[in-house]
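User: Hello! My lab partner asked me to get a predicted holo structure for this protein. The small molecule is zinc ion, SMILES included with the sequence. Please write out the structure tokens.
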Amino acid sequence: MTTGTPARRNWLPVAIVAGALAVLFFFNPSEHGFFPPCLFHELTGWNCPGCGATRAAHALLHGRLAEAWRDNALLVAALPRLAGFAVFRRRGRAAWVFRPAGLWILSGVLVVFMVVRNLPTGVWLSPP
Ligand SMILES: [Zn+2]
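Assistant: Hello! Below are the structure tokens for the protein in complex with zinc ion.
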């Protein structure tokens, strides 16, 4: 059930993302323990595609691109696409990622990234 006017509903995700980015800007996930741990990593010891993403986002917000790349290269590589998604969403166009082919491509990229970063040869893609 959705409530509120359409304009108000459009600003809610923006407000949530802005709030999350503000928390990430002011609190380093490496130094503050209130960020939730990755359950996949806790259970398996393997890195999921999102492992290191909060630290990478914190580094990006402070302009440290190399550190962000080391923490989660996929997040950094996906930034132009994420920005494009935000722009197209604001213009009311459906993002390719919500089409079946896009979902398959995204799923494949995430699985390949996860497998490679957990292989001995892909350790450089694992967060420190
Ligand atoms: Zn993870």
